[in-house]
Amino acid sequence: MESSIEFSTSPTTNSQPTRYRFFKIVVIGDSGVGKTCLAYRFCAGRFPNKTEATIGVDFRERIIDIEGEKIKVQLWDTAGQERFRKSMVQQYYRSVHAIVLVFDVSNPASFRSLPLWLDECRRNALGQEVPRILVGNKCDLVQGSSNWGGVNSEQVQRFAEAHGMPFYLTSAKGPEGQGDHVEAIFVSLAHRLKRQRTLLASHTPQSEALQSFMLPSKKSTEKEKWACGC
Ligand SMILES: Nc1nc2c(ncn2[C@@H]2O[C@H](COP(=O)(O)OP(=O)(O)OP(=O)(O)O)[C@@H](O)[C@H]2O)c(=O)[nH]1
């Protein structure tokens, strides 16, 4: 992870931009599992009226307050279709802070693809220090059942444990306010990242920490250009 993108700026009404620490979270998984809907639900607070297959990547951001600090959660909603992602894959994984791996609980094939997605992470040199979480989306379609068309919840739990990932079952479409898992999933990931970064900083010699804080943030400027507010 490169520390030069740890902070990003947002314009304010006066001339001083506000500086936020930000976390780049990349959402991956098969096409149609609901990555866009999850990202939209977290950033805009509702299920989108309509979605189309993502081409390349869409950016969504939301600023949240964690223990008194404003943190920008930047979600990279990536294309699930191979033909829409191949030229961009390296960009997705560069300086990433966490990965959200999504499958559709009503589509067992999307669960069986997960090892391929983990392979892609490995091929792009993602270190073990980058947390990954597993999200089973569209639970509204399998309500009350723990057997999802050939994949059951224990199998998924075992897979998640074997890869050191917490597993969350949710629905981007679920009724708002009813135990809003989507909100809780991303917020708890941001909490985890903040704790991890604080720990890292406390193990970094002071001069090094200061240097990385002051590095010119070329990458973050590039990202800001692409970022869309929700
Ligand atoms: N029932 C139900 N449908 C959902 C849910 N989340 C997404 N969908 C639907 O699933 C379809 C695909 O959702 P997207 O969010 O576009 O899927 P994606 O993973 O971003 O797809 P790509 O951009 O092709 O990678 C859409 O028709 C959504 O309305 C959910 O939680 N429940």
UniProtKB/TrEMBL annotation:
- From the UniProt annotation, give the residues forming the signal peptide: none
Main subcellular localisation: membrane
Where in the cell is the protein located?
Endomembrane system
Q: What is the lineage of its organism?
A: Eukaryota, Metazoa, Chordata, Craniata, Vertebrata
Q: How does it sit in the membrane?
A: Lipid-anchor
Entry GO CC: endomembrane system
Keyword annotations of the record = GTP-binding, Lipoprotein, Membrane, Nucleotide-binding, Prenylation
What is an annotated GO biological process for this record, any one? Rab protein signal transduction
Q: Does the keyword Lipoprotein apply?
A: yes
One GO MF term attached to the UniProt entry: GTP binding
- Keyword Magnesium found: no
Per its UniProt record, what CDD domains does this chain match?
Answer: Rab33B_Rab33A
What family is this? Belongs to the small GTPase superfamily. Rab family.
One Pfam family it belongs to = Ras
Q: Which NCBIfam families match?
A: small_GTP
Spell out the InterPro entries in the cross-references: P-loop_NTPase, Rab33A/B, Small_GTP-bd, Small_GTPase
Name recorded for this polypeptide = Ras-related protein Rab-33B-like
